Amino acid sequence: MQITDLNTIPHFGFGLMRLPVIDGDTEKIDIPQVCRMVDAYMDRGFTYFDTAYPYHQGQSERAVKKALVDRYDRESFLLADKLPAWSLKKQEDVQAIFDEQLERTGAGYFDFYLLHSIEKKWYPVYNQYGCWDWAQRMKAEGKIRHFGFSYHDDAELLDQILTEHPEVEFVQLQLNYLDWENPVVQARRNYEVCRKHGVAVNVMEPVKGGTLANLPPEAQQLLDDSDSESNAAGLALRFARDLDGMMVILSGMSSDEQMKENLDEMADFKPLSDSERRTIDEITRVMLSKPTIGCTACRYCVDDCPKKIIIPELFRAANGAAMYGLGSREKSYYKAALTDGHGAAKDCIKCGRCETACPQHLPIRELLEKVSETFDQE
Length: 378
Ligand code: SF4
Ligand code: SF4
Prior knowledge:
The protein is an alpha/beta fold. The chain has helices spanning about 5, 30-45, 60-70, 90-105, 125-130, 130-140, 155-165, 185-195, 215-225, 230-240, 255-265, 275-290, 310-325, 330-335, 355, 365-375; strands at about 10-15, 20, 25-30, 50, 80-85, 110-120, 145-150, 170-175, 200-205, 245-250. It folds into two domains: about 5-290, NADP-dependent oxidoreductase domain (TIM Barrel), CATH 3.20.20; about 310-375, no CATH class.
């Protein structure tokens, strides 16, 4: 399939990694609310749903079955799922995980299937287990309709992979205006490599895990003073949507309200004006002057921490303090993350497991020391 065909898909996707939950338990998804979100999304003509094996510790795939597959005609929506390199310990695991995903979702086939989170560490694993050829076999059997991968590394490796694998139809990139020139994320350079190879681009983290939806006061003021009618999240979504070769902009929505706001922006999409582009540049300058941590709250680091530290929640509190000052809201975020036996930043024993899992390559141990200096002295 050519990029032009993929372009016929409505360009706004529902990411299923931060679904609403009950009692703060990420495994207890609020299914009635997800059903309402799915209905609102489908009612506005959008069709693309993106889940993965580890999201909500496997419960995201099960929520897909309950809220979508069991309630809608299979041909009326597009479902994407992903193979996790870090769960592959032997050859048979590739097929076993795929079969488990088909069983969890009840989907029968995946419209889009991705090798999850390719980076230097995982590319050899996908090669070792022959995942590229295996995916083509699944395609021939009709269990996968389109094949691609999500990506978290530099432009050189991406260029190499796309040269070695011309069968790839699309790549999912972390892309937002704040990461556009980020030397680690390399959003612009990776996007340009995809354009060079003629593969479609899916965008993940267009709002950078919510960071671009809640701007610090100085940046929000710039948006308020501009002639843009978009809110902060809408502006970030439109930045990504406005790029050529986009297939789907994914947003990991967590409530009816977020769904409604994003639908209003994306159903009636307007390209950015020149003055909105200037506003984005100014907001970027302000944001980059704040010492925030580039955590996208993906939670890949959480499960293996021996001290049960909910790292993204602690980073969220620290980022709040960096952007708005250390107030009671940030202190209460931090405190809330320590309930039920979850460790504080000072409890980190520096084993490094979290850093192995982090697709943002964050120096988590070092960052936790700083977080501890701010919050554990209270
Ligand atoms: S380095 Fe610290 S935060 Fe990371 S997994 Fe180990 S104990 Fe947990
Ligand atoms: S620290 Fe890294 S792995 Fe953990 S939630 Fe943040 S981005 Fe994800």
